[in-house]
Amino acid sequence: MKKLLPTSTVGSLPKPAWLAPPEKLWSPWKLEGNHLKEGKQDALLVSLQEQQLAGIDIISDGEQTRQHFVTTFIEHLNGVDFKNRKTVKIRDRYEASVPVVVDEIARQKSVFVDDAKFLRKQTNKPIKWALPGPMTMVDTLYDNHYKSREKLAWEFAKVLNEEARELHDAGIDIIQFDEPAFNVFFNEVNDWGMVAMERAVEGLNCETAIHICYGYGIKANNDWKKTLGSEWRQYEEIFPKIQKSNIDVVSLECHNSHVPYDLIELVRGKKVMVGAIDVSTNTIETPEEVAATLRKALEFVAIENLYPSTNCGMAPLSRNIAKAKLNALSAGTKIIRDEFAI
Ligand SMILES: [Zn+2]
Q: What is the DSSP letter of 213?
């Protein structure tokens, strides 16, 4: 990235109400067949326009063509039964009805490549595309075939790598893997989670990112955060492993969290997407608040490695709130650019 302090979102943005009822996860589509296909492309255009108007430098698809950041990818794989679901506890936190792995995992065709090609035609700005990480996928399923989280993660890593390579060929500049599960299962991260992640990025010639957060701003996550005490040191458990990995960018939660900023030091040398926007509140950050977060992060990351961003996806927020937060991110970043005269 040539521009200093390039702004981006973590990924998801609210969808227009004509496509899916707003402000909820797993929101059902309102359209069908060709109308749905067209509607998703229109939503991609709207999302692109909103990001460009807000001055966002690295564009995302706003996850407009997927119902959920994990399950939509899984839906396109062979070996998963979506009809006979099981209830599991996601990230040891909340129960959800999930699909079941019943046979070998395989990806018959690309999942997002057509969407990526469509978006690529609309803008010359860099595009970042998010995919779920292998461990988070394992944690959003019931496995009745491999009977091993490690083996299943490895299989997911292989199909994610195929998808990522095709996304890069389609012109995507940064591939991001979302791994909120890394913040919960530290032993597994260090045992096999990072190995699976390295397999997912193997041979990719574009920039790669890993996003590790404390979750969307939904009640189950907000309740969990209240139990984590006054200092959130989860990153301390996993950052040393990430620092040694081939991943280029680490996306983390900062603003309004209890993450000590000095933990950023543990991924020294990596680019850091600093979350300067809280996605669990409707309060709009002031530009000065965003600038203050970036200033604190700059004590531990070189300015050429700092990517101002959001704490997590904004899918569950209202569109107006999300737009205002994007504007705040740009305005706050401008304050720092002006300070450094860049
Ligand atoms: Zn997140």
A: -
Question: How far does residue 76's CA lie from ligand 1's centre (Å)?
Answer: 22
Q: How many beta carbons lie within 10 A of that of residue 246, not counting itself?
A: 10
187-196: pLDDT as tens digits? 999 999 999 9
Nearest to 61 by CA among 149, 21, 108, 121: 121
Query: In terms of pTM, does the model score above 0.85?
Result: yes
Q: Residues with beta carbon < 5 A to ion ligand 1?
A: 213, 312
Task: Provide the 8-state DSSP code for 272.
Answer: E
Residue 304 exposed, middle or buried by CB count within 10 Å (0-12, 13-18, 19+): exposed
Average pLDDT over residues 227-240: 93
- Amino acid present at 298: L
Distance 211 CA to ligand 1 centre (A): 6
18 CA from centroid of ligand 1 (Å)? 25
- Expressed in angstroms and rounded, the spacing between residue 253 Cα and the centre of ligand 1 is 8
Determine contact, residues 58/5, Cβ cutoff 8 Å.
Answer: no
Q: How far is the CA of 49 from the centre of ligand 1 (A)?
A: 23
Among 36-50, 83-97, 124-138, 274-288, the minimum mean pLDDT is found in 83-97
Domains of the chain, start order:
33-65+111-129+168-339 (3.20.20.210)
> What is the distance in A from the centroid of ligand 1 to the CA of 252?
8
Strand segments (E) across the chain: 77-90, 94-107, 128-132, 142-143, 174-178, 207-212, 249-253, 271-275, 306-309
